[in-house]
Design brief:
With about 425 residues, this protein is an alpha/beta fold. Helix content is about 35%, strand content about 20%. A hairpin with a 2-residue loop joins strand 9 and strand 10. The protein binds guanosine-5'-diphosphate. Guanosine-5'-diphosphate binds next to helix 7. It comes from Gelidibacter maritimus.
Length: about 425
Amino acid sequence: SNIVAIVGRPNVGKSTLFNRLIKRREAIVDAVSGVTRDRHYGKSEWNGREFSVIDTGGYVVGSDDVFEVEIDKQVELAIDEADVIIFVVDVETGVTGMDEDVAELLRRVNKPVLLAVNKVDNNKRAENAVEFYSLGLGDYFTIASINGSGTGDLLDAVVEALPEYIEEEESDLPRFAVVGRPNAGKSSFINALIGEERYIVTDIAGTTRDAIDTKYNQFGFEFNLVDTAGIRRKSKVKEDLEFYSVMRSVRAIEHCDVVILVHDATRGFDGQVQNIFWLAERNRKGIVILVNKWDLVEKDTNTVRDYEKQIRKEIEPFTDVPIVFISALNKQRIFKAIETAVEVYNNRSKKIKTSKLNEVLLPIIENNPPPALKGKYVKIKYIMQLPTPQPQFAFFCNLPQYVREPYKRFLENKLREEFNFHGVPISVYMRKK
Ligand code: GDP
């Protein structure tokens, strides 16, 4: 989908606006899984148009008392990656030098820039907003992101400014995105995979400017690689900035079926790599973790087991994910990596017959019914897989609101045990019968 970036100096209200724009549902999903990672990226929808929103401020280290150079990075990020830029300023403080610097960068940009004057919650302030004309960005929107006033008009303009939606050329082939933090070995992996000859059949440009699907035929598997990092790499310096790699990942992840997450075995499975992992999970994509540079790790009999255990602990509660130990450099287990990605793809597109689902799960539920809540007994009557691209299951029952998270997790685990959804996020819904 398209990307809308929010820029501006600290404390103007970027993250309040961000929280207002992203979907409520998403916030709830996060609360439920207990995951509150990566609060700077989310999906939004307005007038039926979906788009992603990035709070660029969130990716700049120390952005609370920011230096100009950090702001420049933010703006650069937005200029490079976003389709529409929202520049937030603060009517309380008026035009600052930093605002002028940002405006100067933005005036040179050949992309829609929407100026949002924030904290306008009375008429006096609305009058004061006039001074922002001096930024040379034309008309502005007055908003109060704290209560949402004015954000509707702003969103109308955002949607208006988005590039025309192009229906993506659908391909039946699995789409894999190779992502990971800088220097994890993504390019090395891709080189090990496709070698020198780069057997490219077609190039299909997707809906976005620079996410490229390229069709490959390797090891007897046919698939598309969604590669934003490798093919169109800018400067290595930029690539090393966290937010650049996260932005790249966002685009690639949104365009794929299965995320191949390349992780550097010599580093901890933390921060940035976790962000990417949860990004994939939140987008309901299949995931394979490749632990790369395994040749550099000193091993004894328990090393693999311990290492695996450590990673699974970091990705709780979504631990049902394949982990493959590879060396891109020595071309070790590259075939296994792709084979696993294909398996995950198949798991994700799996459709279980309603009769089979009920035959297997109803007896299990009979033996382990949802615990009574406030004296109410929940009776699950039947189960259905929804016709969505990724696995979602509806459990029809009398009192859906009385089923709590732990029981839903129990159901999810049973689905995993019985039907194999290795590497695939699945959704369990309780529905009123
Ligand atoms: P990218 O930024 O994720 O594309 O990472 P690169 O593919 O550019 O790799 C970063 C560095 O790690 C390079 O110096 C590679 O030679 C090295 N590297 C990549 N994979 C391996 C591996 O499996 N083993 C070892 N020892 N080094 C590797």
